[in-house]
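Ticket reopened. Same input as before:
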Amino acid sequence: MVSDASVPVEDLRAAGFGDEVEKVATAIAGYLDDGVGGNVAVVSDPYAGRDSLLAYAESLLDGEVVRVDLDPSAADGTGPELPDPGEVTGASDTSGAGDPSGTSEVEDGRSADDGAGALIVANCHYLFQRRIDGFAALDAFLDRIALSEALVVTSWNRYAWSYLDGVRDVGDTFPATVEIPPLDAEEIATVVEAHFGPDLPDIVDTGSAGRVKTVVFDSREVGLPRGRSVAVPYPKPNPAWTASWSVTGEDEGIEAVTFEKLRRVSVGNPGVAIAVWEESVTDGEIAPGYIEGFATDLELDDDAAAVLWTVVAQESVGIDRLSALFDRRPVEATVQKLVERGFVTLDDDRVMVPPRALHPAVVALERRGMLW
Amino acid sequence: MTSSFAAIVAGALLQIGTPTGTGTGTATGTGTATPGPATGGGTDPTQFTPQNVLTAAVILVVAYLLASTLSLVLSKLADRLAHQRFRVMFLIPIVKFFVYGGALYVVLRLLFNLTQTQLVAFAGLLGAALGLGLKDLLADIVGGLVVVLEQPFQVGDKVQMGEYYGEVVDIGVRSTTLVTPTDTLVVVPNFTLFNDSVANANTSDAEMLVVVEFYVDPDADVERATDIVEDALVTSPYVFVSDATPASVVVEDDLYYRTLRGKAYVNDLRSEVKFKTDVTERVLGAFDDAGIESPKVSADLPGE
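Engineering reply: fixed in the latest deploy. New output:
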């Protein structure tokens, strides 16, 4: 199971996610004060820290909550049931929703003092399968929580969320949607320092900054007649490089370059940044040149694109489920091809996208118009 | 080779840049002057020297090579952009028209001096040429200009021109080239634009509405069939759904059958056929599983 809980909520708050953390806190405060809940969706890329926000929500509720961690079998059931405030709260069901009710293994709960109960559901992107009749569990769950007075805090994969918002309008059911944005280089540095502690490896200048660029290109939409527009690229100086040791002679410059390189490789995703940082430390040292991006220009055929979309949007999918989902496609051969190119990993018959390959996979799918 | 090309073109431009009407002369040993090649304003309005004709030919060849190269480069760039390729493709006909227009201008300036008198003469010549059968060619060229200026379609669009439907792969000075769904290359004269309506299925967006039709027996569970078609549309890997481009199913009733018309946008118009195939295969399979039958041919129908 992919987990992004490696980024504590304190790190996210320190890194500038205060607004996102506050949205969750406000929804929970309303429930604790008035007993009236609402539906909250925490949406992010894989590894970007949504599990941390759920853990934070759980801590605010001080145990008076049912937590359900869904797994891919959730699509076979009818989704998690709402907690019965008179019976069970304060427990976790980490078995996923292989149990359609999502509550049968909940034990040792405490009675809620008031309110309609609180429910935390992690990984709601497992509530559907992209096939005919694959939305039954999702639809049942959304119907159940739509008119409920319970507090329901959910987490979703960003790409599954966008898809489901297009085809099922899931956003309508969640008035409070918290989207975790990408971090800039300074925020990435804060997350890394908060995660690994003050004794970071020595950041050294090897004379090569890798592929950090002095000038980067951004683009701006320029309107054309008849409502059309065209993206015009324009050069923009890279402040991290401009302020680097190589330019200014200041010792701290190389740190700026290192974290800018880390931001670029991780595309501001804190979980990916931490994973890349760990992989890049060599003999207790790290340098911009040690941080290498994923150097594969992936051209996807139809089979690979369909499989990769499923893995990116659902984060962890068993081979058997993929085979059932794409019964007319050569799933095993496609997965093998993606594994060989490093875009997915196969662990105990589960297919996942490793942190470093996430952004290249997203770019490849965006180029095919499959991510909305 | 390159340097000689450059020298010829530079010479041509130099000649164009020289003030006309002055003439050049070469002194003879007897003290009389013989006029050199006239450069306009004199008695000979043209400069049809072998060198100029050769230069004009070279300029046209260079223009052709340049237009082809730029077109190829832009096409490759557009292919790399994949879903965003329309941001580049609309430039292809514009670039070609600028290159060919510039080359034509240089050649005309080189071979003719377009004073008022000669312009009239040229127009007369043009009129005669039209009368002799170049009318269609001129109509094609004007049609090409309209395509560039008005842009009723671009390279990459799916259009119906006359009796042909396909993806526009080239907009030329004289004609537009389509590739039909059966992979046939069709060259459609640009003057078709004046004589026939042109239907553009996507107006330079990658997304395009595709309609897939199914016919079921009047006794079949239409509600279930509608759910199946809708699910098949939105779960296809080729679909694109948003608030502005929703997927929908329209049901129409008839005496002997009911029509389910599924409408959805594909994320790339090149996937039109694959989308239809994918949806049709899965819907038919699900209809079988759900016991939804195709219309039965009634014995009451004429001819049965």
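Confidence is low (pLDDT under 50) at residues 94-113, 244-249 of chain A. The CA atoms of residues 344 and 353 of chain A lie 4 Å apart. Please confirm and we'll close it.
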